Structures are given as structure tokens and as C-alpha cells.
Amino acid sequence: MHILIIGAAGMVGRKLTERLAKDGALAGKKITKATLHDVIEPTAPAGAPFAVTTLASDFSAPGEAEKLVAGKPDFIFHLAAIVSGEAEQDFDKGYRINLTGSWNLFEAIRQLNMQSGGAYKPRVVFTSSIAVFGAPFPDKIYDEFATTPLTSYGTQKAVGELLLADYTRKGFFDGVGIRLPTICVRPGKPNKAASGFFSNIIREPLAGQEAVLPVSEDVRHWHASPRSAVGFLIHAAEIDGDKVGPRRNLSMPGLSCTVGEQIEALRRVAGDAVVARIKREPDPAIIKIVSGWARDLDPSRALALGFKAETSFDEIIRVHIEDELGGKIA
């Protein structure tokens, strides 16, 4: 059993790698090898019960995708992406990585499938985003809602979803796309995602630092924890493709809440002194991007297929305290 993780140095990629190393198996089979790839070399998990190879390159460059799949991995987790804010600021880079890179990967798999007479058909798990949806929204975005993104990032992910579904329909691989909620609370340093403040206003105050809130407290959004994100990926790898059906992209479960409700959850879990570390500094650029994002979803298909997430923001905060802070608040 060979696992390939593209984007393994990112936060979700690291946590997925650690989970696989802990479990030692996927879909009921023992893992014998894992290849971890990113633009910077990923760190191999300590004590992994299988062989680990780490690689660093730009997977969108000509010939790189072919190198990554040459070993015919049984499961491919495609997590690599230029995040929302950066994709909006750097148009060329966003399309090169998020679209061209994904297409190169899918094509490399297709070529191996054809060379093997159809015998090589890996499960490909593609991380998409709720950014594929664009306003105006219904009260809840249902499974059949149109994908009409209002950002370059959302457009790139929507095209990736279409490619995944078509390559799966043609039998080149067995793909499942998962539209991730905004993952909160993200550990580590802030990245260039426009959604980063959702984590910042929880993570920094819990660590004894000030955080900047660039939007109003009535902004509503869709969230799940890093722990849930890893669970989504594992379940997407193991799920029966026949049960998924021809619509291969699924909106993941999550929790809809306002920024104000986030802050009140933080107050309940950690107290007034922690909440007082949040500073209000409106940012028109962030406000404009966020105004076109999904606020609430009805992920009925994913729930029926067994995907699970938190049901309260208090729970999301406690997951962060338990997983990242050793159970302690500064």
C-alpha cells in the first residue's frame, strides 16, 4: 500500500501524515510506503511504521507530476494549493498551481492508467473549497446549488472539481472531491488566506497575544476543526465510490456561526481577559472578499455518507486547546 500526499508540508497535510503514521493502515490495509511532497520538503513523521520518502519541487512544473505518480501510489491526497488571498493577489501563480498543477497531476495519472490497460486506477482525494459558491446565497447552500465563484481561488477549485468528475467518469482514476469549510482554529503562524482572521482571533488570544479582527462581528461563515478535516480526508479515501455516485464533489459538514458567536464561545471557554486581546481594525480588502463567501450549508449528502464534524464552536475551541496547547490557556 503506497500513499502519496501532495501538499504534505501544510498544516492539514502534516496532520494527515501524523494520523496515517499513528493508524498504520488505510481502507483496511497496512500502509507500506508513503511519499510526502510539497514545494518545501515535508518532515517525515517520527516513528512511522512504514517507509517514508520526502520530496520538494513545484508540482506544476513540466514533468514533476509524472515523477510523483511514477511509483503508482494506491491513494493520492491532493492538498496542494495557493490559498484564497494569495490567489486573488497573484493571478498567474494561483492559476499555475491550483489549475495547471491539478490538471498536470490528473493527466499524469491518466497516462499511467492507459499504459496499464486500465489496471492502474488509484483513489484520488481532492481538497476543494466552499469558495466554489458565490453570492447571492439562499439561507442554506444545498447540495445542488450552482458553483458560481466570485474569486479566482474559487474558480480554480471549481474547474478542478469538473476535471476530477470527468476523469473519474472516464475511468482514469477514482476521485472524490471534498469542499472544505474554513478550517479553524489553524495552529501555527497566520498564512495568506483571506479567512485567516477566523483562526487568528481565537489562536492568538489563547496564546496570550493580541489579534486583529478586520471584519464586523455579524459576518457569518462555515467552519470545521483541523481534526475534522483529517477525518474528512480519511473517510473520502475509504468510502465506497459507488455510494458517492457520479457527482464526485461533496460539501463537507461544518458549523455556521458569526464572528460575534465565535467571540462569545471564546469568552465561555477562556474568559473575558482572553477576549480582551482582540483588536478591531477594519480592512476593506478582506471585507470585500468575505462578503462573497458562503455563510451556511446543508451538507445532506456528506452527512448521509458518514462524514462528521463539530456541532458547536465551543467544541472547535476545545479541540484546539487539547490538540495544540496541551490543554492550557495563556
From TrEMBL:
Q: Quick check: keyword Oxidoreductase in the entry?
A: no
* Keyword entries, A-Z: Carbohydrate metabolism, NADP
Query: CDD domains, from UniProt?
Result: Gne_like_SDR_e
**From the UniProt record, which GO molecular function terms apply?**
oxidoreductase activity
Q: What's the superkingdom here?
A: Bacteria
- SUPFAM superfamilies tied to this protein: NAD(P)-binding Rossmann-fold domains
Q: The NAD-dependent epimerase/dehydratase domain covers which part of the protein? A: 3-213
Q: Which NCBIfam families match?
A: ErythonDh (NF043036)
Q: What is this protein called?
A: NAD-dependent epimerase
Q: Give the originating organism.
A: Alsobacter soli
